[in-house]
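Supplementary Methods. Inverse-folding protocol.

Structures were first reduced to a C-alpha cell string of length 149. This string, shown here, constituted the complete conditioning input.
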C-alpha cells in the first residue's frame, strides 16, 4: 500500500510538472523543433531540469534503494536495428504530433482530441510492434524508463 502511494504521488508530481511547464501543449514541442521559424527554447529548460533532478536521484539511489527500487545506471545497452528503428519511429511521431507518451497521457485529463488520437495510435503501434516481434502479452520487454521531458 505504501509503495502504491509513493508511485501515485510520483506520477501526480510528474503530471503536474508537465502541465506547469507547458509540455502538454504540443505547440511547445513543435516550436522547439522548429529551428528555421520561431524557435522556442522552453523544452530545453524542461529537459535540463529533468536531467539535473534525475542525476541527483541516481546519486541518492546509489546509497540507498528505498521501497525496493532498483537502479540500472552504468549498464551497457545493446544498440541493434530494433532500437534504432524504434527510436526513429518515436522521434518522427514526436515531431509530427508534438506529443510523447507522458504528456499525451497527462493531456487526456483535459479531454484534448489530439491527445486521445495520439494515445490510441501509441497503443495500436505498441500492439503492432508486439505482433511483428512475435511477443505475447506476458513477453513484453522491460520498459523501465526515466521521466520523459
Amino acid at each position: 500500500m505504501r509503495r502504491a502511494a509513493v508511485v501515485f504521488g510520483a506520477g501526480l508530481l510528474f503530471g503536474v510538472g508537465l502541465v506547469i511547464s507547458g509540455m502538454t501543449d504540443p505547440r511547445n514541442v513543435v516550436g522547439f523543433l522548429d529551428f528555421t521559424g520561431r524557435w522556442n527554447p522552453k523544452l530545453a529548460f524542461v529537459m535540463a531540469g529533468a536531467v539535473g533532478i534525475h542525476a541527483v536521484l541516481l546519486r541518492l539511489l546509489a546509497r540507498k534503494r528505498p521501497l525496493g527500487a532498483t537502479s540500472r545506471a552504468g549498464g551497457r545497452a545493446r544498440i541493434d536495428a530494433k532500437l534504432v528503428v524504434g527510436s526513429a519511429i518515436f522521434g518522427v511521431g514526436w515531431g509530427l504530433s508534438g506529443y510523447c507518451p507522458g504528456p499525451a497521457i497527462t493531456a487526456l485529463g483535459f479531454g484534448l482530441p489530439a491527445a486521445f488520437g495520439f494515445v490510441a495510435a501509441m497503443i495500436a503501434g505498441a500492439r503492432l510492434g508486439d505482433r511483428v516481434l512475435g511477443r505475447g502479452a506476458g513477453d513484453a520487454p522491460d520498459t523501465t524508463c526515466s521521466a520523459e521531458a
